[in-house]
Write a structure and sequence with these properties.
Layout (H helix, E strand, L loop, with lengths): L2 H37 L4 H9 L3 H25 L5 H34 L9 H30 L2
Length: 160
Amino acid sequence: MSSDILAFIGPGLAEGLASVGSTLGIYIAISAGIPVISEDPAQRGRIFALAFLPATQTLVYGFIYMLMSYSAFLPSLLKKYSSIPPHIAAAVFGISMFVGLVELYSAYAQGKVCADGAAQLIKTRGVIFGPTIILAAYEELFGILGMVFGIMFMSIITSW
Protein backbone atom coordinates (compact mmCIF):
# COMPACT_ATOMS: atom_id res chain seq x y z
CA MET A 1 0.00 0.00 0.00
CA SER A 2 1.30 3.42 -0.90
CA SER A 3 1.94 5.77 1.99
CA ASP A 4 -0.23 8.38 0.23
CA ILE A 5 -3.21 6.02 0.44
CA LEU A 6 -2.63 5.42 4.16
CA ALA A 7 -2.54 9.18 4.79
CA PHE A 8 -5.71 9.78 2.76
CA ILE A 9 -7.67 6.98 4.47
CA GLY A 10 -7.19 8.51 7.92
CA PRO A 11 -9.40 11.64 7.83
CA GLY A 12 -12.26 9.75 6.20
CA LEU A 13 -11.94 7.03 8.82
CA ALA A 14 -12.08 9.70 11.56
CA GLU A 15 -15.40 10.97 10.18
CA GLY A 16 -16.66 7.40 9.88
CA LEU A 17 -15.86 6.64 13.52
CA ALA A 18 -17.54 9.89 14.58
CA SER A 19 -20.62 8.81 12.62
CA VAL A 20 -20.70 5.47 14.42
CA GLY A 21 -20.52 7.25 17.79
CA SER A 22 -23.26 9.70 16.85
CA THR A 23 -25.49 6.89 15.65
CA LEU A 24 -25.01 4.97 18.90
CA GLY A 25 -25.51 8.09 21.04
CA ILE A 26 -28.69 9.09 19.24
CA TYR A 27 -30.01 5.52 19.44
CA ILE A 28 -29.42 5.39 23.20
CA ALA A 29 -31.10 8.76 23.76
CA ILE A 30 -34.07 7.88 21.54
CA SER A 31 -34.54 4.51 23.25
CA ALA A 32 -34.90 6.29 26.59
CA GLY A 33 -37.03 9.08 25.12
CA ILE A 34 -39.74 7.12 23.31
CA PRO A 35 -41.38 5.80 26.51
CA VAL A 36 -41.34 9.37 27.89
CA ILE A 37 -43.08 10.73 24.79
CA SER A 38 -45.68 7.97 24.93
CA GLU A 39 -46.45 8.81 28.55
CA ASP A 40 -46.28 12.62 28.24
CA PRO A 41 -46.38 13.95 24.64
CA ALA A 42 -45.64 17.47 25.91
CA GLN A 43 -42.02 16.33 26.53
CA ARG A 44 -41.36 15.54 22.85
CA GLY A 45 -39.54 18.82 22.11
CA ARG A 46 -37.14 18.18 24.96
CA ILE A 47 -36.62 14.59 23.82
CA PHE A 48 -35.93 15.75 20.26
CA ALA A 49 -33.29 18.21 21.52
CA LEU A 50 -31.62 15.66 23.80
CA ALA A 51 -31.59 12.98 21.11
CA PHE A 52 -29.95 15.30 18.57
CA LEU A 53 -27.03 16.42 20.75
CA PRO A 54 -24.73 13.44 19.91
CA ALA A 55 -24.95 14.34 16.20
CA THR A 56 -22.55 17.27 16.59
CA GLN A 57 -19.54 14.96 16.77
CA THR A 58 -20.26 13.94 13.18
CA LEU A 59 -21.85 17.08 11.75
CA VAL A 60 -19.32 19.52 13.19
CA TYR A 61 -16.11 18.20 14.77
CA GLY A 62 -15.36 15.13 12.66
CA PHE A 63 -16.43 16.95 9.52
CA ILE A 64 -14.25 20.01 10.21
CA TYR A 65 -11.23 17.77 10.89
CA MET A 66 -11.82 15.81 7.70
CA LEU A 67 -12.43 18.93 5.61
CA MET A 68 -9.29 20.68 6.87
CA SER A 69 -7.23 17.53 6.34
CA TYR A 70 -8.40 17.04 2.74
CA SER A 71 -8.40 20.71 1.76
CA ALA A 72 -5.31 22.06 3.55
CA PHE A 73 -3.04 19.60 5.37
CA LEU A 74 -2.74 16.74 2.86
CA PRO A 75 -2.38 19.05 -0.19
CA SER A 76 0.33 20.90 1.73
CA LEU A 77 2.19 17.62 2.34
CA LEU A 78 1.88 16.63 -1.33
CA LYS A 79 3.20 20.03 -2.37
CA LYS A 80 6.21 19.54 -0.08
CA TYR A 81 6.92 15.89 -1.02
CA SER A 82 6.23 14.13 -4.29
CA SER A 83 4.95 11.20 -2.21
CA ILE A 84 4.14 11.45 1.49
CA PRO A 85 6.95 9.69 3.45
CA PRO A 86 5.78 6.55 5.31
CA HIS A 87 6.50 7.93 8.78
CA ILE A 88 4.43 11.06 8.07
CA ALA A 89 1.61 9.00 6.54
CA ALA A 90 1.58 6.80 9.64
CA ALA A 91 1.42 9.91 11.83
CA VAL A 92 -1.52 11.28 9.80
CA PHE A 93 -3.30 7.94 10.10
CA GLY A 94 -2.63 7.74 13.85
CA ILE A 95 -3.85 11.28 14.49
CA SER A 96 -6.97 10.58 12.45
CA MET A 97 -7.65 7.42 14.48
CA PHE A 98 -7.23 9.46 17.66
CA VAL A 99 -9.75 12.06 16.46
CA GLY A 100 -12.19 9.39 15.30
CA LEU A 101 -12.06 7.43 18.55
CA VAL A 102 -12.45 10.57 20.68
CA GLU A 103 -15.49 11.63 18.64
CA LEU A 104 -16.94 8.11 18.77
CA TYR A 105 -16.70 7.82 22.55
CA SER A 106 -17.75 11.42 23.17
CA ALA A 107 -20.96 10.94 21.16
CA TYR A 108 -21.67 7.57 22.78
CA ALA A 109 -21.20 8.93 26.31
CA GLN A 110 -23.23 12.04 25.49
CA GLY A 111 -26.06 9.81 24.32
CA LYS A 112 -26.00 8.00 27.67
CA VAL A 113 -26.14 11.32 29.58
CA CYS A 114 -29.04 12.50 27.41
CA ALA A 115 -30.83 9.17 27.88
CA ASP A 116 -30.53 9.40 31.66
CA GLY A 117 -31.89 12.95 31.59
CA ALA A 118 -34.71 12.00 29.22
CA ALA A 119 -35.77 9.15 31.50
CA GLN A 120 -36.19 11.61 34.39
CA LEU A 121 -38.21 14.27 32.53
CA ILE A 122 -41.64 13.07 33.72
CA LYS A 123 -40.52 12.48 37.30
CA THR A 124 -39.03 16.00 37.52
CA ARG A 125 -41.76 17.64 35.37
CA GLY A 126 -39.12 18.81 32.91
CA VAL A 127 -36.88 20.55 35.46
CA ILE A 128 -34.01 18.11 34.70
CA PHE A 129 -33.81 19.30 31.07
CA GLY A 130 -31.48 22.28 31.72
CA PRO A 131 -29.05 20.39 33.96
CA THR A 132 -29.01 17.53 31.45
CA ILE A 133 -28.02 19.93 28.65
CA ILE A 134 -25.19 21.28 30.84
CA LEU A 135 -23.97 17.79 31.75
CA ALA A 136 -24.14 16.71 28.10
CA ALA A 137 -22.02 19.75 27.24
CA TYR A 138 -19.24 18.27 29.36
CA GLU A 139 -19.10 15.32 26.96
CA GLU A 140 -19.30 17.75 24.05
CA LEU A 141 -16.17 19.47 25.33
CA PHE A 142 -14.13 16.32 24.75
CA GLY A 143 -15.40 16.13 21.18
CA ILE A 144 -14.25 19.72 20.66
CA LEU A 145 -10.87 18.96 22.24
CA GLY A 146 -10.42 15.90 20.01
CA MET A 147 -10.94 18.04 16.92
CA VAL A 148 -8.69 20.86 18.17
CA PHE A 149 -5.86 18.49 19.13
CA GLY A 150 -6.17 16.70 15.77
CA ILE A 151 -5.96 19.98 13.85
CA MET A 152 -3.07 21.14 16.02
CA PHE A 153 -1.10 17.90 15.48
CA MET A 154 -1.78 17.98 11.73
CA SER A 155 -0.47 21.56 11.64
CA ILE A 156 2.70 20.42 13.37
CA ILE A 157 3.16 17.51 10.95
CA THR A 158 2.76 19.70 7.87
CA SER A 159 5.57 21.93 9.15
CA TRP A 160 8.08 19.04 9.50
